[in-house]
Design brief:
Blueprint: H1 2-16, E1 66-69, E2 75-80, E3 86-93, H2 107-113, H3 124-133, E4 137-142, E5 147-154, H4 158-170, H5 176-193, H6 197-210, H7 224-229, H8 232-242, E6 249-254, H9 258-268, E7 294-299, E8 305-313, H10 322-332, H11 339-347, E9 354-358, E10 366-374, H12 378-395, H13 399-416, H14 420-432, H15 439-449, H16 452-463, E11 469-474, H17 476-485, E12 492-493
Parallel strand pairs: 2-6, 7-11, 7-12
Antiparallel strand pairs: 1-2, 3-5, 3-6, 4-5, 8-10, 8-11, 9-10
Helix pairs in contact: 2-8, 10-13, 11-12, 12-16, 12-17, 13-15
Length: about 500
């Protein structure tokens, strides 16, 4: 600031010929004074001038999509973007793993996986070739709250791309030979998941936190036991149950106009009719059971690291607390410069990275802290993590922290809305959770108006560790010793999917 002010002063002096007056009036010339001596070691002046100081970033306000009526009583969210000849279309239905039978966990995942395995008059190979011939990118999947399929394509190829998606949604072939291959790949992936400590920590943390009977407890891609119970007939029945137009939302972003889109959807999805049966209820499983603090250990005797997880109850994505709570999360562990990463990685060198997150779910979610810690440092990492969580619970965020977080949120929103695919992903996520088309605008406005006093109450509510769940995946002896040294509960031992073991 001093350098900048000095540079401005020098410019004013040069322009006025000396500070004779505030408005630079004409004056009689005065004899030039001898320049002051320059010290021998004085640094040379910067030929580029003073360093410019950037103006504060303007608050970004996301555009709001149009809401249109789609085929078969579906909804359409359209955000026109004509800068590039690209369009992304996503179709979302609000039925995911939380709505499926628990004993057949992964059914929604497998059903989504079969969407591109042949449809209409094309078998799996021909369907894949048709997508490739358009230069399109097609994807499908399911999480806890929704199932979806999406395609990105040049706007000039939008109609044939929509015809392929319509076939996948309305006329999947569900052939036995394709299911045999998909099922084998799925079971192998589940087997491999049990060997990845971070994946094990994710699965076990959710299972132990919610409890075996809660619809959110099992992973969306199922377990090794439940996958064996899912049959092709189950997939055909589930597809018919959930993929119905009156439950669907089309999210469309890109180079297409509203009137053209309405006509295209009406033409390509003409065969998608509302079934005679009523739509199944949308799952809202409720919060996890209330419990005291608990600890769990998954033994990995030969692992050089221990994956540490702390879990606390979180709000629904639709609750007013979710957006401001995300601000606390960014400061705690949601960015590279967060407190947890600074402490555990930069100050102590115990991990490559420590992160925290808040699940965005239709029903009550989780606040999760996770890091892969060097085995011999796990006791110290538990202590320091608890210290950071206690600090947040007691102090919340100071105003300087809030300004930094707001700047990060503004940058994240700009980045998300910088691409057609990014915008579609954000809007499809909102649609899958039953949120509003302008939810991103609402969230940013709430975050910009939230004060440090507002966050203090949220910090106390969501970061109090009296009922936390702690999960350690790594060598049993080191884990048990570290828990005892930190005064944490004696652990229960579970396997890679959360089931109790002796």
């Amino acid at each position: 600031m001093k350098t900048a002010r000095a540079a401005v002063l020098a410019v004013l002096v040069a322009a006025c010929g000396g500070l004779q007056s505030r408005i630079c009036p004409r004056a009689e010339p005065v004899p030039a004074a001898a320049p002051p001596p320059v010290a021998a070691d004085a640094p040379p002046s910067d030929p580029l001038g003073a360093r410019p100081i950037p103006a504060p970033a303007k608050p970004f306000v996301p555009p709001i999509p149009q809401v249109l009526e789609g085929p078969g009583k579906s909804k359409v969210w359209l955000l026109e973007r004509h800068g590039l000849p690209l369009v992304t279309v996503a179709i979302v239905v609000p039925y995911g793993s939380a709505a499926e039978p628990i004993e057949k966990g992964g059914l929604a995942h497998a059903t989504a996986d079969m969407l591109d395995e042949g449809a209409g008059n094309r078998d799996a190979l021909l369907f894949s070739q048709a997508v490739n011939d358009l230069g399109a990118r097609l994807a499908s999947g399911a999480d806890r709250d929704a199932s979806s399929v999406s395609i990105q394509v040049l706007s000039s190829k939008l109609e044939p791309a929509l015809m392929l998606v319509a076939d996948a949604v309305t006329k999947p072939r569900h052939e036995k030979k394709d299911w045999t291959r998909v099922s084998a790949l799925w079971n192998n992936a589940l087997k491999n998941r049990t060997q990845e400590p971070t994946d094990v920590a994710r699965v076990v943390t959710t299972f132990t936190y919610y409890g075996a009977k809660h619809p959110y407890a099992h992973p969306p891609d199922g377990t090794m036991a439940s996958a064996k119970r899912v049959q092709l007939a189950d997939i055909a029945k589930w597809h018919k149950t959930i993929w119905r137009p009156d439950a669907a939302t089309f999210v469309v972003v890109g180079d297409v106009k509203a009137e053209d889109l309405t006509a295209l959807l009406g033409k390509t999805f003409a065969a998608w009719k509302v079934p005679a049966e009523s739509a199944p209820p949308i799952a809202d499983p409720g919060p996890a059971p209330s419990r005291e603090m608990r600890s769990f250990v998954v033994d990995r005797a030969d692992a050089p690291q221990i994956v540490m997880s702390w879990v606390r109850p979180g709000p629904k994505a639709s609750e007013a607390a979710y957006a401001p709570l995300s601000m606390i999360n960014i400061a705690l562990g949601g960015s590279f410069t967060s407190r947890l990463n600074q402490n555990l990685r930069e100050d102590h060198g115990w991990t490559y990275g420590a992160r925290s997150s808040i699940n965005a779910q239709r029903s009550a979610g989780m606040v999760v802290v996770r890091a892969a810690i060097r085995g011999d440092a796990i006791s110290g990492a538990l202590r320091e993590t608890r210290k950071e969580l206690d600090r947040v619970a007691k102090e919340g965020l100071a105003e300087p922290d809030l300004e930094k977080v707001r700047a990060l949120l503004n940058g994240d929103a700009l980045e998300s809305y910088g691409t057609v695919r990014g915008v579609a992903g954000s809007l499809a996520g909102n649609a899958s959770l039953g949120l509003l088309p302008d939810q991103d605008v609402r969230d940013l406005a709430a975050q910009r108006s939230t004060s440090s006093r507002d966050l203090a109450a949220l910090s106390t509510k969501y970061f109090d560790l009296s009922s936390a769940t702690v999960v350690l995946v790594g060598p049993k002896d080191l884990a048990v010793k570290a828990l005892a040294e930190n005064g944490l509960p004696k652990p229960e031992f579970v396997d890679a999917e959360g089931a109790p073991v002796p």
